[in-house]
Structure formats: structure tokens, C-alpha cells
Amino acid sequence: MSPEDWDTRWTEGRIGFHKTEINPYLKKYEAEMTRKRQKVKVLVPLCGKSVDMKWLADQGHTVVGVECSSQAVEAFFQESNLTPTISDVPNLNSGKLFQNVSHPPFCYLRDVEGDFDAVWDRGSFVAINSTDRTR
């Protein structure tokens, strides 16, 4: 699916993939994912408005979500009752950084965060066209 197709799904409200509850496997295996470390940096690709991100942040982790749809990002902050500051990401075309003072960074479109300690991916891989997955 192209970024444009992804954004269209959000515009049309075709987001049946979105879950309103924290993923039970994330809760069950968080310690394994983080290797029982506290305050790790977790990447959440194609995060949408996943409630898993807020839960991870509430556990003390730094969460960086990457998303193509600004609507999804805005919905995440609104539904999480968080107020972001929005700034451009230098040297990245149309990249926007959404941040909240009480929670770690959240990034729209592209990220310049460097290394991550863990990745939480509930389903972004299947959203990528199978022919594009090898890239």
C-alpha cells in the first residue's frame, strides 16, 4: 500500500486494523521485549494511533512512532489527551516532529532518533506491499 493509499484509509475511516485496547501480548511480553531493562527507546513503525504507544510511555519507556498519516498522529494525541508541539525535521522532506512534554518524542513521517533498544510492531509489515518488503 502506498503512503497515499494509507492516508486515504485514514481519511475515509477505513481503519478496522486499529485496536482500542492495549495488545495483550505486549503486556505479557514487555519484559522480554525490553530485556527487563527500564526506560528503553522503543520504535513503533506505522503506529497509527496505537494505544500501545501511550502504554509503553506510561511504563517509562521513550516511544518513537513513525507514521505516514498526519490524521493518525493527530488522533493519537487527541485521544491520548496529550498536547504536542509540532516542528519541522531538518533535512527531511515534509517530516514533522510531534512532541509532548509529559511523554517522550513521537515522530511523524521520518525519524532522526538514531538507535533503538526495542521494536514493537503489531502489524505494519502486512500493510507494506509484498513487492516492496525486500527494499
Automatic annotation (TrEMBL):
GO terms for biological process: methylation. Pfam families: TPMT. InterPro entries: SAM-dependent_MTases_sf, TPMT. GO terms for molecular function: thiopurine S-methyltransferase activity. It comes from the Eukaryota. Transmembrane segments: none annotated. The keyword Methyltransferase applies. Keywords: Methyltransferase, S-adenosyl-L-methionine, Transferase. This is Probable thiopurine S-methyltransferase. The lineage of its organism: Eukaryota, Metazoa, Chordata, Cephalochordata, Leptocardii.
